[in-house]
Amino acid sequence: MKKELAKIKLFQNLDKEALNELANIAKIKEYKKGDLLYSDREKIHTIYFVIEGVASLYKPNPDNTKKVVFLFGAGDVLNEVIIYENTTLLSCEFLAPTKLLEIDREDFVKVLEKSYPLAKGVIESLIYKNRVMSHQIKNTSNSITVDRQIALKLYKLARDFGIETDLGTEINFDLSITYLSEILGAKRETVSRQVKVLSELGLIKVVRKRFTIPNQNTLLDYFHGTYQN
Predict the structure, then answer these.
(1) Quick check: 149 and 159 in contact, CB under 8 A?
(2) Could you say which of 48, 64, 109, 138 would form a disulfide bridge with 78 (CB–CB 3.0 to 4.6 Å)?
(3) Do 164 and 134 belong together in one domain?
(4) Please, are residues 91 and 58 in contact by the beta-carbon 8 Å criterion?
(5) Distance, CA of 159 to CA of 164 (rounded, Å)
(6) For 26-31, what is the mean pLDDT?
(7) 123 and 57, same structural domain?
(8) Which of 140, 174, 208 is the last residue of a domain?
């Protein structure tokens, strides 16, 4: 269990006593691609940490579409907000087979109350997520065109979930045009057209829902408006 705990970012600066306590209360569970972990506004009593895989946190829309807010991978905590209130703010599903480390909320709080580094880490994690949401609002504003939004998002996904191949950096999970549009909060038709443009420029390659970025820096240049074909 301690090897699994060591993979979680929030636990990397803890002393042996705190790690031993966490090891005694943690459980590991595996999920399939497409599984729903919890729904929006659901009361839950477990804190989840990703050991491996990809988790999508999203807000359901009235028209049955989604607004994807976060994509989390190995080392991330999904729902530390329930430390303060045990009602979820978002739904969570898996985009790939995923292994989680799970800890009961009340047991986790007992360790938290005795460990300053853990409490500090939780606060920093919440601050980081608030900052990400602020950046999302900025980057989905009308001042940034959809093609540049796509370029930035694919750059970040390649950075966070990429594996190196002969063709470039492949985002290591299936990503449909529909889901990409839900991440961006843009119309599917618009996203589809702009993905085609980026593909024709050679900035991305798409084969059966797998995106590959031949050169991440070039894609970032496109976002900044400094790309030269």
Answers:
(1) no
(2) 48
(3) no
(4) yes
(5) 10
(6) 97
(7) yes
(8) 140
91: its two tokens:
């739904």
> In this structure, are 12 and 56 located in the same domain?
yes
The token duo for 54 is 């990809």
pLDDT of 54 > 60? The answer is yes
CATH number of the domain residue 12 falls in: 2.60.120.10
pLDDT, residue 132, reads 81
For residues 22 and 16, the answer to whether their CB atoms sit within 8 Å is: no
DSSP structural state of residue 11: G
Q: Which range of residues forms the domain containing residue 187? A: 146-224
The 10 Å Cβ neighbour count of residue 207 is 9
User: Quick one: DSSP state of residue 77?
Assistant: B
- State the CB neighbour count (10 A cutoff) for residue 176: 11
On whether the CB atoms of residues 25 and 127 are closer than 8 A, the answer is: no
CA-CA distances (angstroms) from residue 142 to 119, 181, 183? Answer: 38, 15, 16
Do 23 and 87 fall into the same domain?
A: yes
pTM above 0.70? yes
- The answer on 96 and 76 residing in a single domain is yes
Strand, coil or helix: 213: strand
Q: Hey, what amino acid is at 14?
A: L
Structural domains counted in the chain: 2
Q: Considering the domain boundaries, does residue 99 fall inside one?
A: yes
- pLDDT one-digit tens code per residue, 130-166: 888 777 666 555 678 999 999 999 999 999 999 999 9
